[in-house]
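Dear support,

Our group has been running a series of protein-ligand predictions, and this particular one with zinc ion is the one our PI (initials K.S.) wants archived with full inputs and outputs. We had some confusion internally about which version of the output was final, so please treat the block below as the authoritative record. The input we submitted was:
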Amino acid sequence: MSDAESTLITGIGELVSNDGEPNDGKPNHGQQGSFAAMAGAALVIAGGKVAWTGPASRAPAADAVVDAAGRAVLPGFVDSHAHLIFAGERSAEFAARMAGRPYRAGGILSTVEATRAASDAALRANLRRLAAEMLRQGTTTFECKSGYGLTVPDEARGLALAAEVTPEVTYLGAHVVPPEFAADPAGYVDLVCGPMLDACAPSARWVDVFCEDGAFGADEAAAVLAAGQAAGLHARVHANQLGPGPGVRVAAEAGAASADHCTFLTDDDVDVLTSTPVVATLLPGVEFSCRQPFPQARRLLDAGAVVALATDCNPGSSFTSSMPFCIALAVREMGMTTEEAVWAATAGGARALRRTDIGHLGVGARADLILLDAPSHTYLAYRPAVPQIAAVWQAGSLVAGDVP
Ligand SMILES: [Zn+2]
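Confirmed final output from the archive:
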């Protein structure tokens, strides 16, 4: 379909719009937005955007008509946290972890070794395979981090590849200290804040740091974020994944868009997340795949924090690209309602990326949407692990699935 044509999707059993999102250019301020849905609805796509929504009985004419036949339409998922630039896989490490066996050869550094050895073509093919996998599962926007190269040329080429497939590119040179800097971690931070940043900033929108015991401490993390911001990047932080720590505070002090993981939070951390614009991005695929306690979403929501859900898709701790799976986990294991989980996987992800054009289906939004093979959003958690994405539109174009 060309951009000049309009498409009416009618007969929508449940249109999840999340309409009423603040669209004042300050998406990160204020409280958790609200899930909003309408029964018996229709939606018009024109020029790649949502042009009209309302009761099907009052829908205007359009060039093409799609009958949703009572099924649900949702905003495309926004996966605000993924590590897709890598080579190799770590299934043996996962199997050993599940069996309770020690496994010596695993970890991030094994992926670093494989990634450094891979050709550009191999990295690009893996990245595109994962991006296509995401799209088929309804993810219309995803963030993509570097962090398995950890040399100037390897980080720079990874980010250049990521920029081919998404605008949400994140420089994560500060993922872990590579072996060649084991005796000089301060020297590695200097590299990350200096020549590596210079090579990477042109391809990136975001700077991220793994602020955790065994990775980067509060001062190092703050230095990495400040250097990135001086180069024009916006901050986000891996925070409080493995234990309590300074990550959330560092994120707030840097004005970061999001603190990701938030698995181990003190009351002070929760206060920070409710009193600043930092989004708490929860990544339940990690706790599932590492058999760890899930983050306390209910505690955050009840306190008034803004919560997003993302996959953290990576070959070690969470090798899923499925937002529906994360929604199911959030509902079953984290005390989120189905409405809260779907909001967090769509509008919440948009907040975490400071985007106002996605994550909702208000008039003027980018026409990124999913036709679900089910009558309501609840089915995403009610029928876990069942493929239910019938069709996906991205900026108004049908990019996956089929329509009648
Ligand atoms: Zn991550």
